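Deliverable D4.2, example record:
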Amino acid sequence: MATSVPSPTQIQVGFPAGTVLGYPRIGRRRELKKAVEAFWAGKTSAEELEATARELRLATVRRLVDLGLGADDASVPGSFSFYDQVLDAAALLGAVPSRFASLTDDAGRLDLAGYFTVARGQGDDAPLEMTKWFDTNYHYLVPEIGPDTPIRFVDDRVVREFVEAKEAGVVTRPVVVGPVTFLALSKAADDAPAGYSPLDRLDDVVAAYAELLRALAAAGAPWVQLDEPILVTDSVDVPFADLAAAVESAYRALATDLRPVPNPGSAPDSSADPAANPGSAQDARPAILVAAPFGALQASAETAGGAARDGLALLAGTDVDAIAIDLVKGAVPTAADGGVPGLAGKTLVAGVIDGHNVWRADLAAKLEVVDAVEGLGAGAVSVGTSTSLLHVPHDVEDETFAEPGTTSGTTLDPRLRDWLAFADQKVGEVATLARALTKGRDAVAAEIEASRAAVASRAEASGVVVPAVRERAAALTDADFARGDYAERAAAQHERLDLPPLPTTTIGSFPQTPEIRRARAQWTRGDLSDADYTVAMREEIARVVALQEELGLDVLVHGEPERNDMVQYFAEHLDGFAVTANGWVQSYGSRCVRPPILWGDVTRPEPITVEWSAYTASLTEKPVKGMLTGPVTILAWSFVRDDQPLGDTANQVGLALRDEIADLEAAGIGIVQVDEPALRELLPLRKGDQPAYLDWSVGSFRLATSGVEAATQIHTHLCYSEFGEVIGAIDGLDADVTSVEAARSRMEIVPELRDAGYARGIGPGVYDIHSPRVPSTEEVTELLELAVKSIDPTVVWVNPDCGLKTRRYEETVPSLEHLVAAARAVRASLAR
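Output generated by the structure prediction step:
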C-alpha cells in the first residue's frame, strides 16, 4: 500500500483512538529466525541480515496500516527486535558485562555479532541469564548491572528504525522497555558490593533515556512507548515504595523536565533559547505513553511500606501523556467521584483486546468495559490490546480448514475460523472499536453482531463439553491426589533401580538432526508410510541408546525423535486440542513454537508414548525414563480455553496423563518424568493470587502422578524460572526426583532448596544447553561440587539444564562426556 510521508503539520499530537502495544517480529514464515540463524552459521553477512530485518519491519508497518491503524498518528508500534527487547535496552545503554567489554567499539556500541554473543555466550564467557517475561512463555535476557557498568546513550537504532518507517510513509511509535522495569529486572553484577541494587543506577539510565527522547524528538517522533510492567507485580525483590520512588524520579526527569515538542513531527529549533522555548532541542521530547501490561495496575487493597499500592495513581501523578492499562488480566480500576486525580489531562488506553490468547472478542462486551473506563476521568480514552501481540501468531488466514471429521495433522476444524483471532484479527478488532468510539456504535453494528454470533457458536459447539469427562473429574477424591510415604518409596526404588551415587541422566530430548526432521515432514505430508516412519524413528532411538551407553550415562532416554515439540506432540494425540500449521510464536531469540489451541474437554483416545518407551527399554539393561509433559506446562504453552477455570482444565489434562503413566508402568517402565518447566511461569504476579494457583497447579501434577506403585520413580523437570518463589510448590509436587535449571545462575537454587528443607532427589543442571558453548570437565565439576556442598550428596542427580533438542551433536557429545567425567570425579571424592 503506497502512502505519502506526512508533513510535520499533518502529524497530530493527540493519541489515536486505537492502537496495539506491539506486534510479532519473527515474520509470518519465521523469516527473521532463518536469517538470524544463517548469520550465526556464517552463511550470510551482517549487511544481509540487516536488509532482511528492514524488509520485515517495513512489511509489518504497512500491514498494520492496511489492517486499519493510522499511517500518520503513531498508532503503529515500532517494536522490532533481533533477539530480545531487554537485551535491546542494554545495548542502547551500552550496559555490557565486563567479560564482553572487548566486543564494544570505542563508543560502547555492540555490532550484531557482539549483540548475539552477549545473548548466546562464547568460549568460557557465559551468556546473560535467561528467565520468563512476567507470566508469559517469552524469555528475556537478564542484564547484569554493577556500580561500574557503562551506562550512557550509545546506540540510536530505535531512532534509525523510526526514520526508516517514516521515510516509507508510516509514522510509528517507538517501543522501549521502561527505565524502572529495566533496572528492576536486572541482577547485580557478580562484583557488586553487598547492599547494592541495580536501581542505584537509575539516574544514569534516565539520563541516557533522556538523550534517546531528545533524539527521537529531533527525528520527528510524536510519541514514544515506555513499557513498565514491573508496576503490576509484587513478585520482585524491590519493594513497591522503592519502585514508586523510582517511577516518580524517572518520569520527573523524562516527562516534566523534558517538554513535548510544540509542533510534533518537526525537528526542534536548536538555535532557540531553551529557557524561552521549552520545546527546544535541549529539552524536547515526544509525548510519552507508559504501558503496564500483564495485570492490574491498581490494587489498592495491597499495601507496601504502609502506603496503598496503586500504580495508576502513581503514573497519573506524573507528567506522562498517556497510560495503557491491561483490562484482560486486570479489571477497570475503581475511582472516587470525579475520577482518578491527575488523569484529566491524559489519555487512558483501555487494553480490552487480549494480546495473550487467541479467542475472538465479544465486541459489545468490550465496549461496555470502555464505557466504564470513561468514568475514570481521563482527558481521552483510546482502545488497545492488553499486551503486545508478540505472544500470538500472525494471522488466522494462514491456516487451512477442512470439514468436521476430515481434519488431520495441521488442518483445522472450520468452526475454529470464526472463534479465533490472531494478531491481524486483533488489530482489526482494535480498529473496529476505535471506529465505534469516533463514529458511534451504529457504524460498526455488523461487526459487533458477527462477534457476538461467533462467541455464541463456540459456547454451543459439540466437544466443548464432554459429559464423561465432567463426571470423572467430579468423582475425584483426596486419595487421587496423594502417594505413599516418601521414605518407603525411596527404599523400593533403590532396590528396583540400583543406581550409583550421583546418577547421571539427561532431561529427555536429544538433538533433532535434519534427517529426523525430514522424515517427520515426509510422514506428515503422506510421502512416508507409517511403517517406514516407525522404522526411521526406531533406528534413531537405537542410535541414541547406544550413544548413551557409550557415554556411560546411568538412566537412559529414547531421545524423542518423533516429537516436534514437547506440548504440540501431546496435543496432537489428545482430543479437545487443535494444532496449527503456521501459528508460530517467539519463545526466545530465534526459538519459535506453535502453541496448540485447547478448545474443548480433554480426553486420551489411546496410549501416546508407550510404544516408543517400551522399544527403548528392550534395547538396554539400564533403567529407561518414560517422558511426558505435565498438565501445567501443557496449559501454559497452549492457547487455553477461557470459558472455565484453569484448574478444571488442568485436572482434565492430569487425568489423561494419569492414564498414560498407568500404561507406561504396566509396560515395565520404572521411571517416568513429567516435565513442568512452566510451573513458575503461570504464577500470578500478585502474591495474594498465588496460593489458589499453586493449589490447583500442584494438584493437577499430583493427580497425574499419584496412581503409581511405590517402586515406580516419578521425576519432574523445571527450567526458565526464578525457583525461589515456588520452593514450596516444588516440594508439594511430591516428585521423587526434581531436575532444575541451575548452570547459568551457578547453583543459585541449591541453597534455597537446602534452607527450605527439601529432602527428595534433586538434579541441579550442570550444563547450560541454551548456549552453544561446550563446558569443560572442570567447569561442570565446580558446579557439581557447589551442589554437594549445600545439600545431601545422596539425593543429588547429575544432568543438563534442559533437553538437548536444539543443540547439535558436535556440542552435545563432548558436553555429556564432560558431565559424566565430572560426576565420576565428584563421586570418587565423596567415597574417599
